[in-house]
Amino acid sequence: MDCDILVIGAGIHGAAVAHLAARQGRSVEVVEQYSHAAEGTSSRSSKLIHGGLRYLETGQLKLVRECLHAQRALLRERPSLVKLTPFHIPVYTHTSRPAWKIGIGLWLYRLLGGHPFSRVPRNRWPELDGLETRGLRAVYRYYDARTDDRALTEAILHDARALGARISFDTGFQRAECDAGGCRVECRGPDGIRIVNARHVVNAAGPWVNRVLAGFTPSIRPLDIELVQGTHIVVPGTLRQGIYYLEAPLDRRAVFVMPWQGNIMIGTTETPYRGDPADVHPLAGEIDYLLDVYNHYFSDRRGRDDVLDSFAGLRVLPAGEGRAFSRPRETILHQDPACPAVLTIYGGKLTSHAPTARQVLNNFNGVSR
Ligand SMILES: Cc1cc2nc3c(=O)[nH]c(=O)nc-3n(C[C@H](O)[C@H](O)[C@H](O)COP(=O)(O)OP(=O)(O)OC[C@H]3O[C@@H](n4cnc5c(N)ncnc54)[C@H](O)[C@@H]3O)c2cc1C
Questions:
Q1: CATH number for the domain including 260?
Q2: Longest Cα pair distance anywhere in the chain, in angstroms?
């Protein structure tokens, strides 16, 4: 065997699995099709390390508790990359959730492991970065964390490498043949085709997940998924008080307005996506939608010409009825009994990468190394 575990993909999940595996003393290799880590979803997220307050509305309490627990661990373990930040939820006469409902939500969030919250007194509203005060009824301030998703992924991968993990960039998974003893994996790297014999394979290919799965023999039954694109835009400006958690006037979705690298980042959207994950890009309609949200809530208007940057990432969601916004966001680990050497990660959160890595490796525990 060349390694105990071969990980396909150097996003946050691939990095976290490689890091934990190396810490456990296992031999591990990561293959990544691009020349850098986090070129997929893990550099295109909202960059929040959070429990997901809005998931309370869809009853995903377990997910919220797990993410808040993971957040506390990251605040401790990666203090230079994960920072506690004030979030503000303004309640207007026109927004759909009344102040009492948000208060109960924040109380439950606190109970599940969140941080203290309060109401911003009316005489402090003028300090809120130009937030519209017409029709404003109340403003809640609570605390969650944010990060730089690419830098976090790179840091974890760096630590994995320091513990002995091998990381191969510009190396794409092509196909694999597996049996009870492991997999013979064919990858295309800078020097051509390379064969890696691994006892276990972790498919952490993000939105490419089912494309990778199609390369295995015996064939592995894929889960039925939908890709849903989320766009962010960056506009000039400064937010001194932290992040604003707003309700989009058009469809009542949650949209964040947050400080980002000296400017303002606004996101995100939910647009069904069917093409090649490599081709995802922000759509004009999404950019207008995000500008509309900003202009609805802030007095200093922004237009298309102000957009400094925009990027789109792909969520991997279980296929189903209804709006993507209310679809479950739990990570799904998939192991087909026909091919137990391979474990596939579907979906998940940046926030919960460490518990996900633990679950992945627990699945391989008890199997000989
Ligand atoms: C718009 C948006 C906002 C989000 N915001 C948040 C947030 O604020 N907080 C949060 O906790 N979570 C958030 N998430 C979720 C989180 O970002 C993702 O769950 C996470 O980044 C997925 O990481 P991953 O490692 O599974 O996938 P990816 O980061 O996509 O990594 C997969 C990797 O696999 C590689 N790969 C694919 N095919 C091959 C192949 N054949 N060979 C070799 N390599 C291959 C890719 O190049 C890529 O690098 C958000 C997601 C989206 C889409």
A1: 3.30.9.10
A2: 68
Q: Which of 45, 243, 253 to mutate to test the pocket of ligand 1 (most atoms within 8 A of CB)?
A: 45
Report the atom number in ligand 1 closest to the C-alpha of 268: 1
Distance from C-alpha of 204 to C-alpha of 207, rounded to nearest angstrom = 9
What number of CA atoms fall less than 13 Å from residue 341's CA on the CB side? 25
Q: What whole-number distance in Å separates Cα of residue 41 and Cα of residue 46?
A: 10
The tens digit of pLDDT for each residue in 164-221 reads 999 999 999 999 999 989 999 999 999 999 999 999 999 999 999 999 999 999 999 9
Kind and range of the H or E run holding 291? helix 284-297
List residues bridging with 271 in a β-sheet. 229
Residue 351: CB within 6 Å of ligand 1? Answer: yes
Query: Is the same domain home to 155 and 287?
Result: no
Same domain (yes/no): 322, 179: no
In a shared domain, residues 267 and 281: yes
218, 176 in Cβ contact below 8 A? no
Range of the domain at 322: 84-146+226-326
Number of domains within the chain: 2
Mark whether 304 and 177 lie in a shared domain.
no
**From ligand 1's centre to the CA of 41, what distance in Å?**
3
Q: Which residue has the tokens 């980002």?
A: 260
Q: Is 105 helix (H, G, I), strand (E, B) or coil?
A: helix
Whether residue 66 has its Cβ less than 6 Å from ligand 1: no
350 lines ligand 1 (CB under 6 A): yes
What's the predicted TM-score (pTM) here? Answer: 0.96
